[in-house]
Each structure stands twice: as C-alpha cells, then as structure tokens.
Design brief:
Elements (H helix, E strand, L loop, with lengths): L1 E3 L6 E3 L18 H46 L3 H7 L2 H12 L6 H5 L3 H8 L10 E5 L9 H7 L5 E5 H6 L7 H10 L3 H10 L10
Antiparallel strand pairs: 1-2, 3-4
Helix pairs in contact: 8-9
Bound molecules: zinc ion.
Length: 210
Amino acid sequence: MNKKCTKCKEIKDIDLFSNDKQRKDGKRPSCRFCAKNRNKLYRSIKVNLNREKERSRLYYLNRKKSIQAKRAIFRKNNPYKEVLIKNKDKYIKYKLHSLKNNKTKIDPLFYLMCSQDFFLDWLGVTNDNINLNNDLDHIVPLSFAKNHCEFSALNHYSNFQLISRKKNRVKGNRNINFQSISKVLGNHPMPELINLILEKNKFEIKFNNE
Ligand SMILES: [Zn+2]
C-alpha cells in the first residue's frame, strides 16, 4: 500500500509514514523523511534562538562593562565630584532618614563635626518631631564646592538648615538669605574659607536693607 506525502509530494510505501491515531488512515500526512527534516529545522531554529539570546546577553554584559569602565575612569579623574553627583539628592534624604531612625553609619556626623543631638538641636527639632517632608538644605550650596576641602567645609553643621521641600525647589543657588549666611559665618570654624567659596562663585551677600 502506498501514500502520497503532502510535503515532498512523492508516493511512498505506507510504512514510510509514522502512525497517527487522530487521522482517518492512521498515518501522518508527511513521510518520515520529511518529518525528520522538519524536526532538524526546528532544532536549528531553537539553537539559533538560544544563540541570539546569548548574543544579546553578552552585548548587555559588554556594555555594562564599558559603562563601568568609564565610571571608574571618571572616578579616578574626579575623586570627589562623583561623590557630589551621586549623593546630591540622596545624601540629604539619607541623612534626614538616618537621623530619625538613629541609623547614621559613616557619617554624616564625620562632616557635620558635631553629635547627632547637637545637630538636631541646631536644626530646631527633636528626634520625635523630625518632619521628613522637610529637606536638609545647604545654606551655601554644595555645588559651590570645587574640591574635597570645600566639600567638607560646606557639610559642617553650621551650613545646614531645614527647609520645606516646596521652598527648596524654588530656591535658586543665587538666592541665599543674608541672615542664614551670617549664621553660618558665626558658627563655622573656618569662616574665611566660606567667604572664599562665596567669592569664588561670584556670590555677593546682599543685605536685606540694600
Ligand atoms: Zn515526504
């Protein structure tokens, strides 16, 4: 008994077709040879798909590596800038959070040069009434710092104030309150350095009555 294969159109012996109980004649429509070829094709597609997956995974890894390498070079050339950029926003929030939960690691306090209690007192709050909707604000903007020394100086406790988040958003760097500045200068261990930083950033203190 013979049967025509739907795939290769050849007429072949019925034994060259696999069994298929679902079919009327109990045989598959295509011959074993064609089925074998088809399976081969599926397998190669699967292999190719996996290969493609692997390729894009490697591409991602390589890109990640080159990004990391670029960052490493940047860090090497700008040892403190990276800290500034990375921490600009997080730093402040992290600090407020950690102050509230008493979880200061290294430290904010290292730069602040005072104890946590003293700092809270300086800000005019207590552990229980810290409002996390406020931002810890650098009175002289941290972006004015051009080296690590200035960075440290501007993180002294005297350069901090609490400010409502809304106000912080609208407050530009050129808009520093004179009273706040004089508070900094009156309490900072190196007021000359603060003055120098302000000068270097072409910032002139505007008196309220001028
Ligand atoms: Zn066939």
